[in-house]
Amino acid sequence: MTDRIAGEYHGERRALFWLALRTAILTTITLGIYRFWAKTRIRKYIWSSVAGDGDSFEYTGTGLEKFLGFLAAIVILAVYLGVLQILLFFFGLSLLDASDAPGQAFLQFGAFVLPLLAVTPLIFFAQYRARRYKLARTRWRGVRFGAEAAAWGYAWRAMAHWAVTVLSLGLLMPRQTFWLEKYMADRTWFGNAQFKQGGTWTALYPAMSHVLIGLGLIVLSVGLLALDWIGFGILAGLIGPVWLLVGLVSYRVRAFAYLTSMKTLDGQIAFEAAPKTGRIVRIGLVGMLIVALLASVILGVPGAVMTSLVGFEAMEFGPLIIPFVLLYMLGLAVVGALSLVLLTQPLIAYLVGKITIVNASALDDIRQRAGDTGADAEGFADALDVGGAI
Amino acid sequence: MLPVKGRYFDGLTSARHDVQVTLSADRRHLQIVGPSLPAPLSWPLPDLRALRDRAQRGRLTVTLHAASEYAAPQDPARLTVTSAALSTELMALCPDLLKSDMREGAWGRLIKRGALAVAAVVLMLFVILPRMADTLAGLIPVEREVAFGKSVVSQIERALGATRLGQLRCENPEGLAALGAMTARLTAGSELAYALEMQVFDHEMINAFAAPGGQIVIMRGLLENASGPDAVAAVLAHEIAHVERRDATRHALRAAGSAGLLSMVLGDVTGGAAAVFLGERVLQASYTREAEAEADIFALAMLNRAGVSSAGMADFFDVLADMEAGMPALPAYFSSHPASAGRAEAARSHADGQGATSPVLRDGEWAALLAVCN
Predict the structure, then answer these.
(1) Does residue B312 sit within a domain?
(2) Residue B290: pLDDT over 60
C-alpha cells in the first residue's frame, strides 16, 4: 500500500459537453423542472472523474430528492419571503417623506438595504445546508462523507464575520476566511473519521500580499493625480485594479493551499496542496476567452441572420419570432455546456491534481458512518439560487 | 470465462479488496473472491445495477439493488471492473443493469409535496398577499402615500421622455381652470379622503392614470381623441375611483410581495426572467381587471350624482375598442382591463336610464381644456 495518494482527474471534454447539453435542453423543454436531475447527472459525472489511487468518487444524490427538497423549501420560503417583502416595502413607504430633508436619502437607502439584510442569513443557511447535502451524498472507497447539522450556527457566524471584514475595510478578511473554514471543516467527517482544521488566521496574511499591493497602487495613483503627476498617476491607476483582481485570485488560491495543508483527518492523515496562481489565472483567462468567442459566434450569428432577413425585407418579423427564440435558448444551452467544459472542468482538474493525501494507509481503518437523509436536499439553495456552477 | 480483476469496497470500511470476478457456471451470479474477503461473494445478476453518468469509459461500477432509507435504493457495497468483455456480457445478461430504481412511495411523496408547494404559492399569491396589501394600504398615512405618488408620477414622466421634471406638464391656466371646474362638478357632494391633484402631460398616448395619494394624470392624446367633455369627465371619474379605493398603492404592495416569490419558483432557468415577467403580468392583470370593473361602477354613480350623461363614457370606450381592433387580441388573462366593447355597451345602457343631464363643461371651457398644452 502506498502511503501517499495523489489526486487524479479523468473527466473528458466531449462526454461532459454532451451530457451538459442534453440535460440543459431537457431543462428548457420541461420549463425548468428537469434542472434538479440535470445538476445531479453532471455531479455524478464530475464526482466520478475525481479519483485517488485509481478509486473514483461517487455522487449518490438523485434528481427526485432534490426536487422534493425544493418543493419543501418553497412552502417555507413562499410564506417567509412573500410576507417579509411586502412588510419591508410597507415600512419603506412609511419612511418616505415628501420633504427633501438630508436624512431622507439615508432612510431610503435603509429601505433598500433592509430586504437584502433579511435574506442574507437565509443565504448562508442555505449554503451550509447545500454543502452538508453534497457531503452526505459523496462516497469514496465505499465510505460516506458527512457534515454535522449546524447551518444556523454557520449563518450567524458568517454574518458577524462579514460585518467585521466590511468594518475593517477588508483588512480582517483572513480572520473571516480562516474561522468560517474551520467551523465547516471541524464539522466534516469521512466515515467515522473527523476532519480538523489547524493553523492560525494570521498565517493567511502573506497570501493577501498581492491584494494589498493592488490596493496600494490604486491609492498611489489617486495621490499622484492629486499632485499633478498625470503620467505616473494614470499608469498606477491602470495597473492597480488588474493587480488587485489577480491578487484576489491569488489570495483564494494560496488560502486554499494553506487551509488544505493544515487540515488533518482522524488526527493522522494529512494533506498537501500546491496549486499555482499563475496556472489558475491562465486556465481561467484562456477558458473565458474561448467561451466568449464561441458564445459571440453562437449567439451572434442567428441574430445577425434574422436582422438582415428582416432588414432586407426578405421575411416578415412575426413568423421569425418563435424559431429565433428557440434558437437563442439552444444557443444559451450550448454556451452553458461550453463554459462547464472549458472553464469549470479544467479548474477542478487542475486543483484535484495538486492535492496529495499523506499517510494514506491509515485510511484503511476508517469505518462507515450512518447516512444523513437530509430532508431538504439543498432545496433552500436551489430556491434561493445560491448553488453555483455545479 | 477467465477471472477478471476488480476492486471491491464492502461499504463498511474504507479498505480496498483486490478481487477476482467471474460469472457462475449457470450464468446467474457474479462470483467475487479475494484474499482479504472473509468469504466469497455471489451477487445475483437480476439485482445487479450499474452506476450511471460515470466518467472513464471502459470501467464499470456495479452494486446491488436493495432497500435503503436514502434516496437511491442500493446496497452500500461497490465493485469496479475494467474488463470490456465482462461489461458486454453483463449488459447482455442483466436486463435491469441500467435501471434507475425509485424508493418505495416516491410517487406518493412527490404528489403530496407538489400539492403542498402549489397550494402554498397559490395561497400566498391570490389570498394572503392581496389581503395584506389591502390592509397595509389602509395603514399608510396619507401624507406618505402622497409622497410615494409624487415619486411614481415623476418616474412615469421620465419614462415618457422628459429630460427634466415638469417638462411634460401642460400649464395653460385657462385649460387647468376648466379641468378644475370639471373636477369640482364631479366631486361636489362627495366626501373624498384625498386632495385630488390633476395634471395633463403633453404626450400623444390615449391614456390616463391614477398614482397613489390623489395624483391623477391625463395625457394630451386622450383629450384630443375624446368625443367631448363628458367623455373626459367619465375617465376622470374612473381615475378618482382608483384614488379613493387606493388601487395603485395596493397594487404596488402586492407586487412587492409576489415578484420575489415568482422568481424563486421559476429559478435560474434559461429565459427565467422572461417567465417571471409574464407571470407577474398575468397576476397583475387578474388583480386589476377586478379593480377596473369596480372603478367603472363607482364612476357611473359619480356621473349620476353630477348629472353628467354616461354616453360620453360609451363614446370613449368605443374609441378604445376601435384601437384594440387594430391590434392583435391578447388572451383575456393577459389583459389588465375588461373588454372595451362590453364596457361601452354597459355605459350606453346606463345612459338610457339616467335622468336629466347637462354637459359637464361649457363650449368655451372645453376649448380651453383642449388647448391646455399650448
Answers:
(1) yes
(2) yes
How far is it, in rounded angstroms, from Cα A24 to Cα A32?
Answer: 9
pLDDT of residue A111: 59
Q: Which of B62, B93, B124 is the last residue of a domain?
A: B93
Nearest CA in chain A to B15: A364
Report how many Cβ contacts below 8 Å link chain A to chain B. 214
Dist CA A195 CA A182 (whole Å): 10
Q: Is residue B70 assigned to a domain? A: yes
Q: Which domain holds residue B120?
A: 114-370
Cell of B356: 336629466
**Residue B48, φ and ψ in degrees, nearest 5:** -70, 135
Q: Which of A139-148, A309-318, B189-198 has the highest mean pLDDT?
A: A139-148
Nearest-CA distance B71 → chain A (Å): 6
* Chain B residues touching A326 at Cβ < 8 A: none
Distance CA A236, CA A219 (A): 9
> Which ipTM value was assigned to this complex?
0.85
Q: B351, B339, B324: which is closest to B234 by C-alpha?
A: B351
Contact across the interface for B113 and A28, Cβ inside 8 Å: no
Residue B319 counted as domain residue: yes
For residue A77, list chain B residues with Cβ-Cβ distance below 8 A.
Answer: 264
Q: Which of B248, B227, B242, B232 is nearest to B183 (CA)?
A: B232
CB of A220 closer than 8 Å to CB of A232: no
CATH number of the domain where residue B75 is located: 2.30.29.30
Residues B76 and B136 in one domain: no
- Evaluate whether B317 touches B340 at the Cβ level (below 8 Å): yes
What residues form DSSP beta bridges with A7?
A52
Q: Is there a contact between B147 and A96 if contact means CB atoms under 8 Å apart? A: yes
Give residue A388's pLDDT band: very low, low, confident or very high (50, 70, 90).
low
In this predicted model, what pLDDT tens digit does every residue of A344-355 receive, in sequence order?
999 999 999 999
CB contact under 8 A, B13 and A333: no
Helix (H, G, I), strand (E, B) or coil at A168: coil
Contact B14 A78 (CB under 8 A): no
Whether residues B55 and A137 touch (CB distance < 8 A) is answered with no
Nearest residue of A to residue B111 by CA position?
A68
| Judgement on whether residues B74 and B203 belong to the same structural domain of the protein | no
Q: Which three cell numbers stand for residue B130?
A: 392581496
Q: Which three cell numbers stand for residue A275?
A: 496549486
Beta strand B215-219 pairing with B197-201: parallel
Rounded to a whole number of angstroms, the distance from the CA of A293 to the nearest CA of chain B is: 20
Q: How far is B158 from chain A, CA to nearest CA, in Å?
A: 19
Q: How far is A238 from chain B (nearest CA, A)?
A: 34
pLDDT reading at B15 higher than 50? yes
Are B167 and B292 in the same domain?
Answer: yes
Contact A122, A145 (CB under 8 A): no
Sign for the CA dihedral angle at A151, A137, B41, B104 comes to positive
Query: Would you state the cell numbers that stand for residue A27, as one nine-digit string?
Result: 431543462
Based on the fold, state whether residues B149 and B37 are members of the same structural domain: no
Q: What is the DSSP letter of B330?
A: P
Is residue B17 situated within a structural domain? yes
Cα–Cα distance for residue pair A52/A63, rounded to 1 Å = 26
**Number of separate domains in chain B:** 2
Q: Report yes or no: A73 and A376 within 8 Å, Cβ to Cβ.
A: yes
